[in-house]
Amino acid sequence: MGLQRVYVFFCVELSTRTVHLLGATRHPTGPWVAQQARNLLMDLGERASRFRYLIRDRDAKFVDEFDRVFTGSGAKILKIPPRSPRANAVCERWIGSARREVTDRMLILNERHLARVLAEYETHFNTHRPHRSLHQRPPNPEHPTPRAAGPTADTTIRRTSILGGLINEYRTVA
């Protein structure tokens, strides 16, 4: 089968930095992208009505049907200028983080394997990984706790391996 390019479709909520992994495929098409958008809005439920804008690039795969999915929920579509990745810097940052922390460090076998690996990374990114713009807190912490002044002599720290030890998460234990 050899090396093949796999496209990943994701979106990021700018206010919370929450990443939503929508799908991975070797052959993205306009109808596939539109269906992934419908799936996202269905998964978000009432939260989808809070989206005021959708910032996207000018790829031909974003067909009119894709735009109608979001405009139907009340969002306004904003297209970034051609060849200007800095206009969508938050998404570019997530792509870089996912590459540096995961995909550049492991052999991905196929699109199903990539989807599983990125789903696990998405969970880590959304529930544990600190974000500078959120004052070193994750977007959706599993256990929201007030920030302590620092570890004390009687603090126990527990490590959890993610992705077979590629990433480690550390938590204090009471």
Structural account:
This protein has helices at 30-44, 64-71, 89-101, 111-127, and strands spanning 7-13, 18-25, 53-56, 76-79, 156-162, 167-173. The protein is of the alpha+beta class. The protein has one domain: Ribonuclease H-like superfamily/Ribonuclease H (Nucleotidyltransferase, domain 5, 2-Layer Sandwich). Helix 2 links the parallel strand 3 (53-56) and strand 4 (76-79). Helix 1 (30-44) runs parallel beside helix 2. The longest helix is centred in the last third of the chain and has 17 residues, at 111-127. The protein is globular and about 60 Å long. The mean pLDDT is 86.
What's a concise summary of this model?
The chain has 4 helices and 6 strands; from the N terminus they run E-E-H-E-H-E-H-H-E-E.
